[in-house]
Amino acid sequence: MKVAIDASVCDGKGYCKRFAPEVFGLDEWGYGKVLVEEVPPEQEANARAAVEACPLQAIRTA
């Protein structure tokens, strides 16, 4: 599973980092960023939870 954050949509609430800190972090401006594009199998459930939690649906999976 791969993940990406649409920077033009993200508003920096940080839900992604709260749900999957091994996959998502925050950049220097406080907006979400992907730490690992290819999500390890043991982190997929957390990454999916982050996708669901994002209020602006800024996270995409493939």
Automatic annotation (TrEMBL):
Gene3D superfamilies: 3.30.70.20
SUPFAM superfamilies recorded: 4Fe-4S ferredoxins
The keyword Iron-sulfur appears for this protein: yes
Keyword NAD: no
Matches recorded under Pfam families: Fer4_15
Keywords, sorted A to Z: 3Fe-4S, Electron transport, Iron, Iron-sulfur, Metal-binding, Transport
The name this protein goes by in its record: Ferredoxin
Source organism of this protein record: Nonomuraea spiralis
